């Protein structure tokens, strides 16, 4: 691990969760009412435990968002609005990746290409610079890195191990070898080693297999992952192969990881299209795990698994069925900020 730099795990203390409010100028326009309800539920859950920082595209969006949150009786003392005109609301991928640097912080600003140029992303690619210019990160060092990387594509245990997928990183950087990519990621993200998964995908996912839809670290050398036990499902073979890969992984000191397979929700079909309903797309905050719920009987079983993987934390279900219409879920729309970062 790079001396004096450390990439904290998501379950470490946080100062806030950063999100962006959906509005009619984003891809949510067609189903905005449903999506707003998910955002209100998310902010309500976050503010029970810590602050929520909400990007708003303009004054009208801020006024509207504040009115909706107040009507939901949310603690507005824990809400902060941040003006910035964004393309979309997937802040896990366009937002800051924060390292601890001694007693301070280093905010990494990777190039955001909307998942390999699939959509317009010019404004979103300027998000981190704009937040830094507004002084939101205080004295943190802002480091722009000319390399396409999304926060949803990487997962750290906070102790020097990074987990990612070859499918995603190879798609973004087809000319780079696995060794080259491992060295770059380890250098920028202060990691001792990079673990790669070659299997795992979800229909309805346009990120090229982001790790945060598939497998996540948990405290105490554990991995929580999306399993599929339905042999008739189109995902069965690929997720079984991924489960076998995960079982073969070893901790930094050579032990198997403790494994927590998540249940499989029934297929969600929307206008003939299968949507990516992953329980692995949870968000860890101070004292709780916010879990995407899909109105499926497996929701309760998933909550029970997460309670085992994150003992001592409350498991809060957030209705996320509206989000998966746009191919992402709870973790995808949020980015945690470590405790001590921000003004």
Taken in chain order, the helices and strands follow as EEHEHEHEEHHEEEHHEEEHEEEEEHEHE
Strand tally: 19
By DSSP (H or I, 4+ residues per run), the number of helices equals 10
- Low-confidence residue ranges: none
Radius of gyration: 19 Å
- Any idea of the CATH topology? L-arginine/glycine Amidinotransferase, Chain A
Q: Give the CA-based shape.
A: globular
β-strand percent reads: 25-35%
In the sheet with the most strands, the strands line up as 1-5-6-7
Describe this structure in words.
The protein has 343 residues and is an alpha/beta fold. It has a single domain, classed as L-arginine/glycine Amidinotransferase, Chain A (5-stranded Propeller), CATH 3.75.10. Helix content is 27%, strand content 27%. It has 10 helices and 19 strands. It has a 4-stranded mixed sheet, covered by helices on one side. Strands 4-3-2-19 form a 4-stranded mixed sheet. The longest helix is centred in the first third of the chain and has 16 residues. GO terms for molecular function: agmatine deiminase activity; protein-arginine deiminase activity. It comes from Pseudoxanthomonas taiwanensis J19. Keywords: Hydrolase. This is Agmatine/peptidylarginine deiminase.
